[in-house]
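Regression test attached.
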Amino acid sequence: MPNAEDIASELRDLEALAQREWSGANPAERLGLKSRYLGKKSPLNAILRGLKDLPDAERRTIGGLANETRDRLTALFEAAESSRASVAATPYDYTLPGRPHPRGHGHILSQTMDEVIAIFYGMGFEVAEGPEIETDYYNFAALNFPPDHPARDMQDTFFLNDEHLLRTHTSPVQIRVMESQRPPVRILAPGRVYRNEAINARSYCVFHQVEGLYVDSDVSFADLKGVLVAFASEYFGPLVTLRFRPSFFPFTEPSTEVDISCLLCRGRGCSLCKHEGWLEILGAGMVHPAVFAAVDYDVNVFSGYAFGMGIERIAMLKHGIDDIRLFYENDLRFLRQF
Amino acid sequence: MKVGYRWLLDYVTVPWGPEELADRLTAIGTAVDGIAPVFERFEGVIVARIIGCETMPNRPDLRILTVSDGASQRTVVTGAPNAQIGLVVPLALPGARLPSSPDSTVGVRAFGGIQSEGFCCSERDLGLSEDHSGLMELDSEKLTLGRDLWESLELDDVTLSFELTPNRADCLSVFGIAREVGALVGSRIRRPDVHLVESADPTDKHLKVQIDDAEGCPRYAGRILRRGRVRPSAFWLKRRLRSAGQRPINNAVDITNFVMLETGQPLHAFDWGKFQSGQVLVRPSAPEESFVTLDDKERRLPAGTIMITDGGKPVAIGGIMGGQESEVSPETQDFLIESAYFQPSRIRQSRKRLEMASESAMRFERGVDPNGALYALDRAAGLFVQLTGGELLAGAVDNYPAPVAPLRIELDAERVNRFLGTSLSTPTMVDLLSSVEFGVVPGKLAIVTVPTFRPDVSREPDLAEEIARLHGYEKIPINRRAAGVMPTHRLATALRELRMRELIEGMGFTQIVCNSLVDPSQRATESGEPIMVRNPLSTDLSALRGDLYGSLLTVVSHNLNRRVDSIAVYESGAVYRKGDQPSSFHEQRQLILALCGQAPGSGWDQPARPYDYFDLRGAVTALAAALAIPLEITPHDGAPFCPSEGFKVTIRETPLGQLGRIDPDICRRFGVKEKVWAVVLDFELLCAHSGSAKLYVPLPRFPALYRDLAVVIADQVPIGDLQRAIRATGGALVDTCTIFDLYSGAPIPSGSKSVAFALAYRHEDRTLTDDEADRAHAAIVSALSSQFGARLRE
Ligand SMILES: [Zn+2]
């Protein structure tokens, strides 16, 4: 058992040695000194831990001395650290890169989809999903694409057999939801769709779509314009203007294709917008009475609108991505940009 | 559909140039997607008359012409066979620039000592047609000598290309486009009047039309013209066809094309001399029947094809294409002009099965005006008389047993306003509909008569669309009113997916999104019979994926090949499997996480190391912890993992997925030589188990006591078993038990390993005494010793 006097003298020696060493050390060495004199394995710490084995009176005396020594050394080290004059240089190479914290990236398609869903969610649309392997009925017939109608040429389809196909749009979800639910219906159907089209920078055989549907009494075309204008200004920014062009989709009447003013040139014309000043972003319209008939909604009571947009398309426009194949190539150097 | 701008001017007055017209048409739904000049510009060509013509001495193929521009005369040399005195022709003056040789100008050339001051041009020289048979013959009555030819012929025409949606069959004609223009300018179109000069001989004496397929061919009309002459068309006709993107052929073919483009009614001209009897019989195709079409291909006719026959042999596939045998040839003198109406879906079915396309079929399958057949027939007959010089028999034969009456629809103006969100007056709606030739009888409910050239309009919403587009979509208000309050539920799976994605990305995994169409010959696992696409783009995209491994390995390979050396990716996607029933399918959402290459964190102070099992296990554990689900990982020998490095993941004994190192043989098939660690989990099951809210556990109120424990055990003892024994023995007093050291090598005897645990003992309700902790610790030491032969390491 060490006696108190020895410990007191050891403490004094320790402090003197520390002061000497400190004054002669360079910044890098000083880092080491600090842990050597105050760290877990330091003699000072050993003394402090040993206190419990001492008799009460000595424990108080030595404890006091030890704590004072520790405080003084701490003050010495910290004063030196904080004193601008005493620091000759940063004690480490601050230009070295930090230790990496790996960060994963959501696929830009997911990020875009999430953002679109969040905007419509805020306007009262809830998400509905359906299968990718669909029947002719849900993908076409119920959506007023009669058999042997030229409208079917608008969507090149992959068939699995006479009845089943890979859905060409997420519009079948409209039918599935309306079959199971009475109005009001306000849904958003995101998902993967397929088109049997040659693969190139502009088109891919798989892509993602978000389709919206709102059915209630007295839903008007003006409401459709309202919701789409609100979406576009949220997603593309308040400076964007919209153009509604009459168009044709079998399951809406009237139908419209919607353009936004070019994001690059603001309508003056550039290569992005093929010098038209406009970029097509979505198709929309008022739900066709034949669609309501298919789900047994009374056309004299209810009206509704539907809209659909390609997620790849709007992501490409917003982020300046010029080749749709990049989304499916999954090159990490691409994915990590977002 | 392509239409010449100047052609439109024949029927409607247009106050705008082509660009502005295009914008205005696009705004009402008749979208123009291109404007291009019809002819290549030429300069320095004037109108001249040949006033002298002599054959050049020693060169019988050349002639010396004296041409006049009205004021002065020039000498030019020509090889054209049709040069003769009196002809008015194009004269390219020295310095002229022609489309046929755009890089040089016309000069003065000497032919056998004769200076030719420019030359007289054929249509081909001027880029106006393919005709190079002789000099272009100009209309001496309409043109002034000496005037610039480009301007005189008004060749600065442009072609408007329309991108039409399939519902607008009515716009597949110049009349139709002109009607839209008329709606914009507020005037009706001027259809050319037809005055026919007919012989006394009635057509029906020579032509009988019998329809044995009334469903497929509700109307068949025809006229006969005798002793006409087939030759190149007049220039006015050629330029109209050119302006609509068509190549002129001869007058008979050109007239039928011209009238089809003008009116939208497809016509066909037959060589009437090839008909055996004076009869046309329309019938469905016979089984096994085949036929040679005018593109010289023999075609096997699908059942239900509408055939035009002469009572015996077929002469045309109705509405799709004529036959080679009855085709008009340069020798044809007698013509049968056909103007019929065929049922749209029958045409489409046959055309698709025949894999054919024609301008005629395209129009019939979209819907031609059944009541427009006779006007088009007479219009064509008039042009036949004018351009072939033949004799037209009196009257048309028109077999139309059940005339189609125009549809009448009620229009409730108030309802339309509510539907559109507009406040248009009834007279405004009437005006808008009238502008595109709908008949309207106003009233509380207006009665609208839909012209038969608009088969797309059948109900009030269709009328609403006409009103909306003609009024202008831009003028419909933007309603920002939030309609109705409805509770919005987010799909639980969607929400959990979002949360899970954030978790996984937080652990450093990057999301991939892969094509679900894959190569069936390159499968990572034999996950059932693949679902094949019947009409794939290519064989390497002909099946739906049955697992996520193949897509993953493709992505890994792509990135390794591009020197991306640290790959941590995940996909949340569907796999597709055949169901038990013959044509039932299952789509299952799965989650795959994979690691390959260098673990992150290496750099200037950390050595590089490859990803291994523990990186993946750590990620899975963290995910399970975040979702508050208890996962078990136990050995499992299953594809696609290496036999000794495959594991199954279970949740309360329910299989959830698989984990491990993918078999190097499989990796190699995808071009991957590195180790790939992957875990696949059933996404829906994961969601189902992670739904419940996490319950608060009170924070500890009493301090813990800490003890370390280092033991030496045999190599093969799983440390997980030791941890389980520690907890089982220590019971509730063991608060935490972490492994802080694992070591083998000297001085530890070979075949053994040393493992050190840091234990925290805590009592829930009071401060634990050193004594109690020591007792618990000692019990654990002896349990490890008796159960695993563990020795305390000093
Ligand atoms: Zn632009």
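Expected vs. actual: identical. Residues 108-335 of chain A form a domain with the BirA Bifunctional Protein; domain 2 fold (CATH 3.30.930.10).
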